[in-house]
Amino acid sequence: MTAGSRTLRVVIHGRGGYAGAPRLALDPVAAAAVVVLRIQAIVAQETAPAEQLVVTVGSLEAAGQGNVIPDLAVLTVTVRGFAEESLERACTAVRRIVRGEAAASGCPREPEFEELSRSGVNTPDLALAEQLRTAHRQLFGPARVAEWPPALATEDFRLFGPAGESPHGGPGIRTAYWMLGMVGPDQWAAAPGPDAARKLAALPVNHSPEFRPQVGATLCTGIAALHAAAPASLGRP
């Protein structure tokens, strides 16, 4: 349902100095800018077309005034994919690119890497998911319960499964996961585009400052979906 991820903090060291005399300093921002551009090639050149993987530089920070070359630049990089092998390979590529650019730029210190977070691939229990899908179709009607392709969003939800495993090797907790639509009819009608695909592309998504769920319909539908799923997952009518 959702991807696994790794988030890395990367520190590139330079040598601070006066912007009017760059020859006497070493600008880590310039090195970081090259890294940002070079990282984009990981997906294009090191990933098979059928393999879903994204690499995102979420931030680049270098404290200081506009007339000062800073001592260091800090990047946060997030990698998302559907296989542990893909995630590890992409993280290895990020480290290789950063080290290579630091060496090419003559940085005075080796770059530093810290893994800030990681999440695993969320693979629900197929049988339970089908039970809940049936319950939701009975409640809402087939037209309101759609298939959802794997999404490159990431979740900690998958941690619930192994949390139920016993020390003696007993099974974990069966999990199922569904997405909940949050667009009201007025928002959908107002979205530009002649078809559903264009309307979806025009609507603000989560993390956008313009994201605005239709609160009433979303809460009512979500509560009803949970209420139907609970007895269905427990095998009760």
| Count of alpha and pi helical runs | 8
| Shape verdict | elongated
Strand content is: 15-25%
Biggest sheet architecture: 5 strands, mixed
Helix content: 25-40%
Radius of gyration: 23 Å
Class inferred from helices and paired strands: alpha+beta
Distance between the termini: 27 Å
Order of helices and strands: EEHHEEEHEHEHHHH
Describe the structure.
The chain is α+β, with helices and mostly antiparallel strands and 237 residues long. The protein is built from 8 helices and 7 strands, in the order ββααβββαβαβαααα. It has helices spanning 28-39, 41-46, 84-105, 126-140, 160-163, 185-190, 196-202, 215-233; strands spanning 2-13, 17-18, 53-61, 68-69, 72-81, 112-119, 151-154. The strands form 2 sheets. Strands 1, 3, 5, 6 and 7 form a 5-stranded mixed β-sheet that branches. A two-stranded antiparallel ribbon has the order 2-4. The longest helix is centred in the middle third of the chain and has 22 residues, at 84-105. The two termini are 27 Å apart. The mean pLDDT is 91.
